[in-house]
Design a protein that fits this description.
With about 60 residues, this protein is of the alpha+beta class. The protein is built from 2 helices and 3 strands, in the order βαββα.
Length: about 60
C-alpha cells in the first residue's frame, strides 16, 4: 500500500465511507473551488477503501 491517505471530493462518497466505518483524517477547503465553498475529505487508506469507493460510484 503506497499512499497513507486518499482525498475524496464529494460529500456523498465521504458520508458513505464514514457509514462504512472508514477513518476520516481531516476536512480541508478545496483549493480548486473559486468560490471557496467546497471541502475535500481526507481518509486513511485502510484495507478495502479503494474497492468501497469503486462500489459506491457504481450505484
Amino acid at each position: 500500500m503506497g499512499k497513507k491517505a486518499i482525498t475524496i471530493f464529494t460529500a456523498k462518497t465521504a458520508r458513505e465511507l464514514l457509514k462504512g466505518g472508514f477513518t476520516l483524517i481531516d476536512i480541508k477547503p478545496d483549493k480548486n473551488d473559486p468560490d471557496g465553498k467546497r471541502s475535500v475529505f481526507i481518509f486513511r487508506n485502510d484495507e478495502n477503501l479503494l474497492e468501497k469507493i469503486k462500489e459506491y460510484k457504481e450505484k
